[in-house]
Amino acid sequence: MRTIRRLGCEQSARRGSALVMVTMAAAVLATLSFSILAVSLAGSKEQRGAKERIRARYLCEAGLSDAVYDMACGGNGDVGSQQEPVDYGNGDYWVDTTNLGGELYQVVATGRESRAGARLELTLQRTTHNVFEWGAFGDEVLVMDSNARTDSYDATVGTYASQAVNGSGSSAYAKSNGDVGSNGDITLNANVKVFGDSMAGVGGSTTIVGSNVTLSGTTTPQTEVLDLPEIDVPLIASSGPMNVTGTTTVIPPGDHSWTNFTVQGSSKVTVTGPARLVIDNYHLKSNAQMVIDATNGPVEMYVYDDFILDSNTLLASTANMPVDLSVNLLSDNVINPEVKVQLDIITFDSNAKMYGTIYAPSAIIDIDSNFELFGSLVARRVLLDSNSRIHYDESLATAATLSEYTFATVCWRVLPFDP
């Protein structure tokens, strides 16, 4: 009996020791588990924070992209604000842009994602591109016949007549920035008057034929080729033909499109800006007028095929400001022996007058005698007939509505984020 009791006590002691060991092992495992969990949670938190900081950096880059696009379109580069940021996904951003002068801009973007944030700074150098820096420019060639002339004035200062105080009689002119240019050669015939430069293309030349040519500026060729961008035509549903008679027709602001747009002789149509007009064929018949009311914005015209201004017509804004009207011609009237097509008709007839810009990168523009353009002309080929006159508006060179901007990065850096 004593032996049995001793064995029972020994077994109980062994069971107690095992229980203590199991309990200790469980405690150790629990401690390790908590430590592993704590490390895992800390790692997960750090990983989540790192991802949020990366996403905040991406938001900054999105803001910088928006700002540069806004500046390229003529805006000031500010996007959203700290009080009213731009929402994007689970985060937001805003951009503050400062004009440093000298075409330098400081662009600072701030992005926030959950509990993280980032801030980036760009310093940009702006370059302005504007094809309307010439009185007349011919991509392939420019020819001025006898007694044709160019000069310049500033429409923001006053009328051309008020500034044409130099010279006298038929030789009177305003300013001397009526430059003509080409990516090819330039020919000036007898009695031509260019109050400005005559700059042929790279490797080209200005040829003076005959006597009594007046050229106030340089004939040094250009050092770079001027690229003529393609015309981007807005997509607008057509309303069919438009035939204007009488003098009371008014076209309201907005987008309009017609197959044929004809203003009958001695009739008048008023177009209220801002407006975009897309037209297949345009015809202003003798003594007709198209007047632009640009009080609230300019008018842009896009013509696919024929563009005809008959004699004694007028195409101008009520304020006679060339910046109020831009005429973009997709017309192609150049004979190509290898391609048989119906050539478009482009006519700028005698004694007609226009205030605006003409851009025709695929066409020959032949300005008839006594036609008078206040503004700028850029085309594939330019032929200025005898006694035609172009008065370049100097304000077009810096007009925001006609300029394209490109930006080069001068400096890039990461700024500290201060929540």
Which key features would you list for this structure?
elongated, single chain, 2 helices, 18% helix, 419 residues, 27 strands, five-stranded antiparallel sheet, 22-stranded parallel sheet, alpha/beta
What does this protein structure show overall?
By secondary structure, this protein is α/β, with parallel strands linked by helices. It folds into 2 domains: 1-130 and 403-419, no CATH class; 136-402, no CATH class. The chain has 2 helices and 27 strands. It has a 22-stranded parallel β-sheet that branches. The longest helix has 71 residues, at 2-72. The radius of gyration is 36 Å and the shape is elongated.
What's the gist of this structure?
The chain is 18% helix and 40% strand. It is an alpha/beta fold and 419 residues long. It folds into two domains: 1-130 and 403-419, no CATH class; 136-402, no CATH class.
Helices and strands in order:
Elements: H1 2-72, E1 86-88, E2 91-101, E3 104-113, E4 116-129, E5 136-144, E6 149-153, H2 160-163, E7 180-182, E8 185-188, E9 193-194, E10 198-199, E11 206-208, E12 214-215, E13 242-244, E14 249-251, E15 254-263, E16 268-272, E17 275-284, E18 289-293, E19 299-303, E20 307-309, E21 314-317, E22 325-329, E23 346-348, E24 353-367, E25 372-384, E26 389-393, E27 404-415
Parallel strand pairs: 5-7, 5-8, 5-25, 6-9, 6-26, 7-10, 8-11, 9-12, 13-15, 14-16, 15-17, 16-18, 17-19, 17-20, 18-21, 19-22, 20-23, 21-24, 22-24, 24-25, 25-26
Antiparallel strand pairs: 1-2, 2-3, 3-4, 4-27
